[in-house]
Amino acid sequence: MRETLTLHLDDSHGALLRTLGLIERRGWKVTHLDLRPAETGRQAARFEIERLPWHAGTPEILARHVGKLFCVADVTLGAGRADNSDRADRAEPADTRCGAGWTPSSAPLSAAGPTPSSMRAAVGAAS
Predict the structure, then answer these.
(1) How many Cβ atoms are within 10 Å of 116's Cβ, its own excluded?
(2) Cα separation of 122 and 99, whole Å?
(3) pTM for the structure as a whole
(4) 37, 93, 103, 111: which sits with the fewest CB atoms below 10 Å from its CB?
(5) Residues 80-116: pLDDT tens digits?
(6) DSSP the chain
(7) What is the pLDDT of residues 36-54, one digit of tens each?
(8) HSE, side-chain direction, 13 A CA sphere, residue 3
């Protein structure tokens, strides 16, 4: 699946590197990058990206994550949606770590995180 992200970056130190790093950490590969000066203090960047085969994320989620970077002014998810009609390849993989009938424990967690007693209760309930 190929997608196009168009965004306006601040002309600050490391803005492009932060954006590229986030895209790659989220399971996408940049196949083409076009960077041009835009208005004062900004750059217009157009990324052509391709999802890596092991990743099941959607381009909409990636656009939301990129938009949260402090160096990004706005994000537009562009053309390149020719194969979006086949949504079966974007389905979330089944969690098969613990067998077919596994469900996560519903042990309560405190605001500061799990406590040793709640962890013991969760382990005891799961077995």
Answers:
(1) 7
(2) 18
(3) 0.58
(4) 111
(5) 433 333 333 433 444 444 444 444 444 444 445 555 6
(6) -EEEEEEEEES-TTHHHHHHHHHHHTTEEEEEEEEEE-STTEEEEEEEEEE-TT----HHHHHHHHHTSTTEEEEEE-S--TTTT-GGGGPPPP--TT-TT--------BTTB--HHHHHHHHHHH-
(7) 988 778 999 999 999 998 8
(8) 22
Structure tokens at 65: 């994550």
Q: Tell me the residue type at 115.
A: T
Structure tokens at 35: 């960077």
